[in-house]
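New to this. Please check this record:
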Amino acid sequence: MQNIFRKVLILLTALEYKSVLAEDVDNDDDMSSYTKDNDIYYKTTWKPRDCVGPLEEDDDITMVMEYYGESSKGSSDVEKAVTVRVGRGQTLHLNGRGMQGMCLGERRRLKIPKNKIRAELKTLFPDISDITTFLEVELVELNGVKWEKLDSGLVLALIEEVEAERCDRTVVDGDWLAVEYEGSLEDGSVFDSSKSRGQPFGPFRQGYRQIIAGYEIALAGRCLGERFKMIVPPHLAYGDEGVGTSIPPKATLYFDVRLVKLNDKTWTEVDEDQDEDEQVYRWETVESVPDCTMIAGQEDDLYIHYQAVREDGSKFGSMVESGEPYGPFRLYGDGLRTAPGLNKPIEGMCLGESRKIYLPPRLGWAGQFETMEVTVVLVRINQTREKSPTLPEGPPKKQEL
């Protein structure tokens, strides 16, 4: 028999509740440390200090699940790891038992009746003939939120993200910022907060080392109003020395942060209830075509003239340099891959029509941090060229198309 170790990435949604027959689980370790949830026993093997969550019924989650089993294939003992993504509707019907109340990043060991786990997994992994009765489970994503460890060592979770359509600007070096925050030590003691100060911290200038490095890394690319949690290692905080009596040497710091000021704009909670009409991402017809005979569709080869205006008033595009139109390209294909927000406004344009598009940074070119006004004229439909120009990888210089 071949011993197999499998790591399974499972997407669960709409956790169900179904009754199953109870069966004794293996007692290969001290069961006094386990909690019983119907027919499943579980214990927490690791839990983050700050709980993001917890997991509730109907949450969309991604879990990493490790288990041991045997296969009849092969004659030698082999250990291997396999990652499998299971789509919605293909969930393990553990019905949330043993997992309800988990925090993001938490790990648990589940003891599950043999008949239940065998029945659930055999359809997903038909080569498994027998499975032991415990699983190691880690909650790695909860309703789109996940902890991410950056190359710098900073650990970050974006708790409240601003939709790309509503984010008119992202943080870059030189911006003036202010934040609401709470900072605490590993033991949970709070060493500082904007609440205790009675006001946000700031203004400070991004990229000018006026705050610890962990803050500058986390704030880069953020939108006004976004909230995140971060775990800052000592080398990105106050290092080997600490600060006075409040922050000891070599301290790892925990922060809960919201960006509340970005240059001359200030966030308030009412911003969360913006009307659809207040979206940054929108477009309007500048010049219509009275007798529209052809419209841009997803299967058409298209050519456009365009002009984009940066925050500082500088412009780029084929209309600026009186160059050749950009094309051919197809909507939602590689042609507009580097500026995906242009697809929707161009779709349905009449041949000869002109539109103005307000293109926010997260739907625009790589490196774009402001909302640009992009004027587009559809000049050709279904005409081919010998050589297709390529859309610039970032906001192009004036001489580029």
Q: What stands out?
A: The mean pLDDT is 79.
